[in-house]
Specification:
The complex is a heterodimer of chains A (358) and B (259).
Chain A (H helix, E strand, L loop, with lengths): L5 H30 L7 H10 L14 H36 L11 H15 L9 H21 E2 L2 E2 L1 H24 L10 H6 L11 H16 L1 H8 L2 H6 L4 H23 L5 H13 L3 H25 L8 H19 L9
Antiparallel strand pairs in A: 1-2
Chain B lengths: L2 E10 L2 E11 L4 E5 L6 H8 L7 E6 L2 E2 L5 H7 E4 L11 H7 L13 H13 L15 H14 L4 E5 L7 H14 L2 E5 L3 H7 L2 E6 L2 E6 L1 H4 L2 H8 L2 E6 L6 E6 L7
Parallel strand pairs in B: 3-8, 3-9, 6-7, 7-8
Antiparallel strand pairs in B: 1-2, 1-4, 4-5, 9-10, 11-12
Helix pairs in contact in B: 3-5, 4-5, 5-6
The chains are: A mainly alpha (358), B alpha/beta (259).
Chain lengths: 358, 259
């Protein structure tokens, strides 16, 4: 019986270490992010308040805080930070999946207009009450449909003779993205009533301001379900990166699998945009940084992206809250300021593969 | 495992790319497919490994219709090595060879010790075990092709399809690659560019011309000056080489036509 090869063991060890470090980092980030704000709160108090709300713990924890603090922590800051976790995780996972689907390192839900498609559909719902027959899920479902429509359009436009050319993919993505942003703007401008209108800025740049516990469940479930689906299919995702033909000859049922991927990416992006607006560049940056750390194997890339994306958005939101306090920046400004230069670096680094279309 | 192609036709829009092709590859045989660019070699192979869907005709693997097999089952029986492929994302050599195991895996199944062993053996057979942990994109063209061969080996398919596997390779690696494939003793169908290599390594050769089968037979039967002139439009002199015992083709350019 042979043992796992040494280089492989070393990599597994490294991977486990990264997972543990990032999990610890995420818990730490959540704690600090909840502490920071106009009312400073001690780290121990943060978790005491959190645990006091868990079933089975009440009565065990001594209340060392006043109701005001309790309210700020539990009803305002926690949902917001956790929403950041869900949004960051979901966007990074969606970015990983869309890069595999398009076999393109520059693909990202925001750049390809998938997020703006969701925004446009969401504004329709909020301002005009469209899709009312979906009930309380109208916003999420229509954002999902918006994403789905944009994915389909971009994929059709980008394919020439069965091949996905990088330049066409990016250009059609940008064109669709601009149209969708324009539509969003138009809808917001034409809005019939003042109240309940979240600004165009919100939908284009994203914000976690509206976070509430009620908004967390559905996106969290979708992120968990989507990530699980992708993890189960990691072999097919890996094969897809080698090219469509290679994937087919390695036994991937490409037609069905591609459709599933489109749906999963649209679902992730749609639900997330419906709770946070369109936050850019996370889905582009995080998977790349992760691949530099652990290689391209999706079994590793997916969980590490999820954790790193969550940490990134939590901190981006802290910056968005604090830099101009008491004013808030849209979080998209923070991510774009980090992501823009990264994208340019990537373009230059990958310039050689442009002609190849891979 | 044998491959049988019966009356295969394929067209894109109104353009017939291949027309009523019949061929067979018997167990353990190495069969070559030659023809000028655009004669339909790749198209024919892509129809066989089911990336393209034929208009009519049948492909049989050991008597089973390929079109009836699930994708995974097909991948367990038939492996493909194309022209040099590049990935936009970097994998280690071991990652790529491990992909050859995926058709053998159920949805939740993890890589087992047996898989590692198979990957190890495949890498040993192509002489790249030392490079297992290095990244694919840093390899030379010849090494990349050997990695893809190792992936095909890890797939444990009985049939190997090669689509101009030695394109872009230096002559040394072309020979190395063909020696390697020959030594594997798999049932093998290969589109080849180089007529001398085809003559040297193949048990039988099919000649494609404008989507139709122009000739077939042993290298000695196929490599004839009149036939090569008809199909490739070049004048040749062909002799049985004293060392290899195989036909050796010398091309006669127009500049010495006066001789």
């Amino acid at each position: 019986m042979m043992k796992e090869p040494a280089d492989f063991r070393r990599r597994s060890f490294f991977f486990t270490a990264i997972l543990l470090a990032l999990t610890a980092g995420l818990v730490l980030s959540i704690t600090v992010a909840v502490m920071l704000g106009p009312v400073p709160i001690a780290p121990a108090t943060v978790w005491k308040i959190a645990f006091s709300h868990m079933p089975g713990f009440n009565g065990w924890i001594e209340e060392t805080w006043d109701t005001g603090q309790g309210h700020i922590i539990w009803d305002i800051r926690f949902p917001r930070v956790l929403l950041g976790v869900v949004v960051g995780a979901g966007l990074s996972v969606a970015g990983t999946a869309i890069q595999a689907l398009m076999r393109n390192s520059l693909a990202d839900p925001y750049i390809l207009g998938v997020s703006s498609g969701a925004s446009a559909a969401a504004t329709l719902v909020i301002l005009f009450g469209a899709f009312r027959f979906f009930g309380q899920y109208a916003l999420s479902i229509s954002a999902f449909l918006g994403s789905l429509a944009v994915m389909a359009i971009v994929m059709v436009l980008a394919r020439v003779g069965g091949r996905m050319a990088t330049s066409r993919l990016l250009l059609s993505g940008i064109a669709v993205s601009m149209m969708m942003s324009a539509i969003t703007n138009l809808i917001v401008t034409m809005a019939p009533r003042e109240e309940g209108i979240r600004s165009a800025m919100y939908w284009m740049m994203g914000s976690l301001t509206g976070a509430k516990w009620e908004y967390l469940t559905l996106p969290a479930l979708i992120v968990i379900a989507g990530t699980s689906f992708l993890l189960v299919q990691y072999r097919a995702l890996n094969a897809l990166l080698m090219g469509e033909e290679a994937a087919l000859t390695l036994g991937v049922n490409l037609h069905a699998f591609r459709k599933w991927l489109v749906v999963v990416v649209a679902l992730l992006t749609g639900t997330i945009v419906s709770v946070s607006g369109a936050i850019g560049f996370v889905g582009l940056m995080i998977p790349h940084i992760v691949r530099l750390m652990v290689g391209s194997d999706h079994r590793r890339v997916l969980p590490v992206s999820l954790l790193l994306g969550a940490i990134f958005i939590v901190w981006a939101d802290v910056l968005a809250r604090l830099v101009l306090a008491p004013e808030e920046l849209p979080i998209g400004i923070v991510t774009a300021l980090c992501g823009g230069p990264f994208f340019i670096w990537l373009l230059r680094r990958n310039s050689y593969s442009f002609g190849g279309g891979i | 495992m044998n491959v049988e192609v019966k009356g295969l036709s394929f067209s894109i829009q109104d353009k017939r790319l291949i027309e009523s092709i019949c061929l067979d590859v018997r167990e353990g045989e190495m069969v070559g497919l030659i023809g000028p660019n655009g004669s339909g070699k790749s198209t024919l192979l892509k129809n066989i490994y089911r990336v393209l869907e034929p208009d009519s005709g049948e492909i049989l693997l050991n008597g089973q219709r390929v079109s009836r097999l699930p994708q995974k089952e097909l991948a367990r029986q038939l492996a493909v090595v194309g022209q040099e492929s590049s990935a936009a994302f970097d994998f280690t050599v071991r990652d790529i060879v491990m992909m050859g195991r995926s058709p053998h895996k159920r949805m939740f199944e993890a890589d087992s010790m047996e898989d590692y062993e198979i990957v190890e053996q495949a890498l040993t057979r192509v002489g790249l075990l030392h490079a297992a942990g290095s990244s694919f994109s840093n390899l030379s063209g010849g090494e990349k092709q050997r990695v893809l061969i190792a992936r095909a080996l890890a797939q444990q398919a009985r049939v190997l399809i090669l689509d101009e596997p030695t394109n872009h390779l230096d002559i040394r690696y072309q020979l190395q690659m063909m020696d390697l494939v020959k030594a594997l003793k798999l049932t093998c169908l290969a589109a080849l560019h180089d007529l001398n290599i085809a003559a040297c390594y193949c048990d039988r050769i099919y000649v494609l011309q404008e989507g139709r089968m122009a000739a077939s037979g042993s290298p000695e039967q196929v490599m004839r000056p009149d036939l090569l002139y008809d199909v490739f439009g070049v004048r040749t002199e062909i002799a049985i080489h004293p060392l290899t015992g195989k036909p050796s083709i010398t091309f006669l350019p127009d500049m010495i036509s006066s001789l």
